[in-house]
């Protein structure tokens, strides 16, 4: 079907508007982070990033976020692949009921669970530890991950699993050697999404952590913003430091991420 010139121009105009609306906040933060304290002095101030790093203790906050995110992503990815394979490729009694119960983790918001979670983890002596940040986020991430991977395996597995079974392959070999290589885009998409959610998690860290040495980057940025001596450019520089790891990860994995999203949209 041929597309007229008017339709093509209209499409590009719409894309241009959405691109500008997405880039404007980002460019505004970058410009604010690099401008001088007093508007009109002229020149860029990249030293604002150094000031935010040292004064705001973002080195420790970013390290804590990296530890929590790495553990949550690794554990969630493994459990999600296993659960997705079980619900998508295996046949067993009660599969639908168990999958429905697992999806409750996606339906209940964190705000509704954080208070009872706090008391439970406090009774176990786990507050003010990495486990208080890791365990709840793994539970919520696996709920989505199992749903995501199940959709992929349901759309790819029937013929492949039957062929692997005819060759004498068991479940482990079928998953590891046959299905997992095909699932790489879906797994990468899952990793990026879980990393994004875990890195940006604020409420859980605010409730579970009182030790400054365990604060994550978003929580550290909130306390940094509350200081009376914090300037606007330095605060914007701190925001850049907090957002930079997510941006770098997405840029590094964007091809697989987009492919995984398209596969999910077309075949899910």
From TrEMBL:
Alphabetized InterPro entries for the sequence: MetI-like (IPR000515), MetI-like_sf (IPR035906)
Topology of this chain in the membrane: Multi-pass membrane protein
Keywords noted in UniProt: Cell membrane, Membrane, Transmembrane, Transmembrane helix, Transport
Subcellular localization(s) per the UniProt record: Cell membrane
Domain ABC transmembrane type-1: 62-253
Pfam families: BPD_transp_1
Chief localisation class: membrane
SUPFAM superfamilies: MetI-like (SSF161098)
Ranges annotated as spanning the membrane: 12-34, 66-85, 97-119, 131-153, 174-199, 232-253
Family statement: Belongs to the binding-protein-dependent transport system permease family.
Protein name as catalogued: Carbohydrate ABC transporter membrane protein 2, CUT1 family (TC 3.A.1.1.-)
Species for this entry: Streptoalloteichus tenebrarius (strain ATCC 17920 / DSM 40477 / JCM 4838 / CBS 697.72 / NBRC 16177 / NCIMB 11028 / NRRL B-12390 / A12253. 1 / ISP 5477)
